[in-house]
Write a structure and sequence with these properties.
8 strands, three-stranded antiparallel β-sheet, Enolase-like, domain 1, 2 domains, alpha+beta
């Protein structure tokens, strides 16, 4: 199909639905006689206190997150570009939210030819009422740079532990 035909079809559909894209906003054109255009801002959200369903606990949690210490609870891991929550920070968040962790081993593979083993874990964060609040998946393998020098099966316990930690970190990150 021709690109011009596709663009024309999309524009026609948008006009039928009375939706127009403008810079920084989405406008809905009401099909009334006076043809009013209602502008819906897509920029910064309003303060939480003004929103319906404002939640004080959420604000308190955000204040708690400000107490985490850079380079102790979170920071940039050497060789990466993003800021990550360290194990110590994960534990603090879990303690603050009164969550416990249920681990499940999803898979374990061993490649005898390359002498590499890999683990995939699932971590479920469970509230005191027994409700699963978040789930994360983490994986690790002995072919990673930090495990390669240990050689083969001797690194398996550390690789397994790393996969489990990554799963919990993922689940906690989804809460933030």
């Amino acid at each position: 199909m021709d690109i011009k035909l596709i663009k024309a079809a999309i524009e026609q559909k948008a006009q039928q639905n009375h939706v127009y894209q403008t810079t920084g906003t989405t406008a809905i054109k009401e099909p009334a006689v006076n043809e009013t255009i209602i502008s819906l801002p897509t920029g910064e959200p309003t303060k939480a206190e003004t929103l319906p369903g404002y939640n004080k606990e959420y604000i308190q949690f955000r204040e708690f997150l400000k107490t985490l210490v850079k380079d102790k609870d979170y920071g940039q891991v050497p060789g990466t570009k993003s800021v990550m929550l360290y194990t110590r920070g994960v534990r603090k968040v879990l303690h603050y939210l009164h969550l416990r962790v249920n681990y499940s081993l999803l898979s374990h593979h061993f490649d005898a030819g390359n002498n590499i083993s890999s683990f995939v874990f699932k971590a479920e964060l469970v509230s005191s009422e027994g409700e699963i609040t978040s789930t994360g998946v983490g994986c690790a393998n002995s072919g990673e740079k930090k495990f390669i020098s240990m050689g083969g099966l001797s690194a398996d316990p550390l690789v397994c532990q790393a996969a489990a930690k990554r799963a919990v970190s993922c689940a906690v990150r989804l809460l933030l």
